[in-house]
Write a structure and sequence with these properties.
Blueprint: E1 9-23, E2 26-32, E3 49-54, H1 71-75, H2 80-83, E4 85-90, E5 93-95, E6 102-108, H3 116-123, E7 129-135, E8 153-158, H4 163-172, E9 178-185, E10 200-206, H5 214-223, E11 243-245, E12 248-249, E13 266-273, H6 274-287, E14 295-301
Parallel strand pairs: 8-9, 8-13, 9-10, 13-14
Antiparallel strand pairs: 1-2, 1-7, 2-6, 3-4, 3-7, 5-6, 11-12, 11-14
Bound molecules: flavin-adenine dinucleotide (FAD).
Flavin-adenine dinucleotide binds near residues 49 and 117.
Length: about 300
């Protein structure tokens, strides 16, 4: 019996079984490993996040041998040259079953400001190893923020870091879902073909030389019938831990029951660089009167700041 079986999540060493350079900014990795046989969620995977621990610069991979429930709590206390780096990614899809279960992850390669997660993915080859922390079938895990309430007018918004999540959600939506999705990517070559319900419009925006999130901000406001330009967000106004969902607030704001707001059917999910998300949040909630309980706003990364651990 593998040691991971005792844990409430699957903590398993995984091996890259396929690498595909999707486009200039994305690399797709297929992760395989015996422990993945036990992963699973109750319902769609939607935007399920998971942790990946990548090896140190010297190639040392953290050990999950004999891991028990204290593993996660004590991992960060170990010297970085032993433990490597933990990063958050999205389950793009799950392939196969049983011992052949594989997890697909699309990683943004960001050469200008590199970090251990992006660097590892960019250099990954078949056989590269990492450690994954994923939901165990039958055990509540959390990490899914998307919901699809009946009758929702969906609004999905993301930069490249949220492209995997939005594409995964679009592919899993029922055929009768309605709404719109807006995705901003660095260059036009990053635009992907994605299956989606006919009633959900998908707009890709290639950033080019524009500021990060500017095109996205404009397009979302136009979609909501508001034409104002994107407000400048000062660096000290950006909430680095921005994570506001209908059921959780990183700022401790009271969670009020839905009042209908200015867009009663709207159900929005917005993720990406923190300044971009902070700006959109301000506009939607403060200026357009969108009810906070109808939106999940999530800072996936912050310009100039490495993820903790
Ligand atoms: C719930 C959740 C799901 C996510 N899913 C995915 C996913 O499926 N695929 C994915 O690629 N990312 C995803 N991210 C974002 C990813 O975790 C961050 O981008 C992370 O910082 C990458 O780690 P790193 O080691 O490459 O860079 P870090 O060491 O964290 O940062 C190093 C430098 O790179 C910059 N940087 C970090 N990310 C980016 C970026 N995307 N573009 C440009 N510069 C960047 C930082 O600002 C910093 O200056 C997700 C984040 C969350 C919270």
């Amino acid at each position: 019996m593998s040691t991971a079986v005792a844990l409430p999540m699957v903590l398993a060493e995984v091996t890259v079984s396929a690498v595909e350079r999707l486009s200039p900014s994305f690399v797709r990795l297929v992760l395989a490993g015996e422990g993945l046989a036990d992963i699973g969620v109750d319902g769609p995977w939607w935007d399920q996040r998971f942790k990946l621990v990548v090896p140190t610069e010297d190639g040392v991979l953290t050990s999950v041998e004999d891991a028990d429930e204290t593993w996660l709590g004590t991992w960060a206390d170990r010297p970085v040259e032993e433990r490597g780096h933990m990063r958050t990614y999205t389950v793009r899809s799950v392939l196969g079953t049983g011992a052949d279960t594989r997890v697909v992850v699309d990683v943004v390669v960001h050469p200008g400001a590199s970090g251990p997660g992006g660097d590892w993915a960019a250099a990954a080859v078949v056989g590269s190893r990492a450690v994954a922390l994923l939901p165990r079938r039958g055990v509540p895990f959390g990490g899914i923020e998307f919901t699809n309430p009946p009758g929702a007018d969906l609004l999905l918004v993301g930069d490249e870091s949220a492209v995997p999540a939005v594409c995964a959600v679009l592919e899993q939506l029922p055929d009768d879902a309605t709404g719109a999705a807006f995705l901003e990517v660095p260059v036009a070559e990053d635009i992907q073909a994605v299956r989606r319900p006919p009633g959900v419009a998908l707009t890709w925006l290639a950033r080019g030389v524009r500021a990060h999130g500017e095109a996205l901000h404009e397009a979302v406001l136009a979609h909501l019938g508001a034409g104002a330009p994107a407000p400048e967000i000062a660096v000290d106004e950006v909430d680095p831990d921005l994570w506001e969902t209908p059921t959780w607030s990183s700022s401790g704001e009271p969670l009020e029951p839905a009042s209908g707001g200015a867009y009663p059917q709207l159900h929005a999910w917005i993720a990406g660089e923190s300044a971009m998300v902070t700006g959109l949040r301000r506009h939607l909630v403060r200026e357009l009167g969108v009810d906070r309980s109808q939106v999940a706003f999530m800072g996936y990364w912050r310009r100039g700041v490495a993820m903790r651990s």
